[in-house]
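Backbone-to-sequence.
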């Protein structure tokens, strides 16, 4: 293994060397702010009110009525697992580049910076936004949607990784993503001394009895986004003493497709629960019933979206990308990202086009360098076709 010294990826190497594991995006934010300023962009920081160390970096060029936005998230997940090198050093091994965030999504940020640095906008303003907290609960994306900066944006390009329904390693353009919600279900029991456990009702046993029923909830299928999926993400029950637990709770993790949303999903679960009571499969315990609610979250849940393939700028983007990468398939992402926020809040077409890489949210994250060069060139090609 060698530490990469080639000039081409010097900037990427700098990005990887800056630790930006959420919530510590300040250093990389300052770096990107200075870099864009030096590249001739009008720049500003959009601060999170409750924590001034966290901010989105916004940059723009041009004097037109409408804008094209390039977006990337600055944060990474922590370095999980057993890295065979320092996660904060860009290194090369067998023709691939390794480093934390190299695929998700500092490689994409590099491609944006390299393609826009000499671009002079012709018909649309060129806007760039780098957000924080994507790997957590998208606080940066929600904050951005409330800013004047995005009001004239008509199209967004995001070089994010997109786990798609076909994992054949081919480069793709992603035109939609499923949404995701969490539902917490609380199940009552009756406590009793552990030595006479049968005198009580063990809430853990009740919850285990319930789980197969709720997992049979109707899962929708969408012609583009595919099917929903659901699983039990966590389970909790405990007692402080030698006693039968009188409450258990578990959380359902549900990837959804339209037209499902928080309300319809919660209704479906509640119908199942009501039905189990009506049929006497569960009984009210001292006036306590099984309850279901959305698992509390500081920002709203992310809803599914699709981008219209027939939109003119989408077509222009796909053509430009195809001229560099060769024929590329259109696909739909299995999971959520900041794009879900933009699609809902800004109602604009969004294309996701990232490099070819893997092992994100895992150890030894990698990217293929040629795909980064192609990505940079495809963005340049797109900007020139506008
Ligand atoms: Zn990402």
């Amino acid at each position: 293994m060698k530490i990469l010294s080639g000039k081409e990826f010097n900037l990427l190497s700098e990005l990887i060397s800056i630790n930006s594991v959420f919530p510590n995006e300040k250093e990389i934010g300052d770096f990107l702010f200075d870099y864009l300023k030096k590249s001739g962009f009008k720049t500003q920081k959009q601060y999170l009110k409750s924590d001034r160390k966290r901010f989105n970096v916004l940059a723009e060029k041009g004097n037109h009525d409408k804008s094209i936005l390039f977006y990337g998230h600055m944060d990474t997940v922590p370095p999980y697992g057993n890295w065979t090198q320092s996660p904060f050093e860009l290194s090369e091994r067998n023709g691939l580049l390794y480093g934390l965030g190299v695929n998700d999504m500092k490689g994409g940020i590099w491609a944006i910076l390299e393609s826009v640095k000499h671009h002079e906008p012709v018909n649309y303003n060129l806007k760039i936004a780098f957000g924080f907290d994507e790997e957590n609960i998208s606080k940066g994306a929600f904050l951005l949607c409330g800013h004047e900066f995005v009001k004239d944006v008509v199209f967004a390009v995001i070089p994010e990784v997109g786990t798609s329904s076909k994992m054949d390693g081919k480069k793709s353009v992603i035109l939609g993503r499923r949404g995701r919600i969490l539902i917490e279900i609380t199940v009552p029991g009756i406590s009793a001394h552990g030595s006479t456990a049968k005198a009580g009702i063990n809430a853990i046993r009740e919850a285990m009895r319930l789980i197969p029923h709720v997992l049979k909830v109707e899962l929708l299928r969408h012609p583009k986004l595919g099917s929903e999926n659901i699983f039990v993400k966590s389970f909790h029950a405990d007692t402080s003493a030698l006693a039968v637990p009188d409450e258990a709770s578990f959380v359902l993790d549900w990837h959804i497709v339209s037209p499902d949303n928080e309300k319809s999903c919660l209704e479906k679960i509640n119908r199942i629960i009501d039905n189990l009571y009506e049929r006497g499969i569960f009984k009210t315990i001292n006036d306590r019933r099984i309850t279901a609610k959305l698992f509390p979250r500081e920002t709203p849940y992310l809803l599914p979206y699709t981008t219209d393939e027939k939109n003119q700028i989408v077509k222009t983007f796909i053509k430009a990308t195809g001229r560099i990468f060769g024929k590329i398939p259109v696909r739909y992402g299995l999971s959520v990202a900041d794009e879900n926020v933009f699609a809902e809040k800004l109602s604009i077409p969004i294309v996701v086009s990232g490099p070819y890489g893997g092992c994100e949210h895992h150890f030894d994250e990698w990217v293929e360098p040629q795909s980064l060069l192609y990505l940079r060139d495809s963005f340049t090609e797109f900007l020139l076709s506008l």
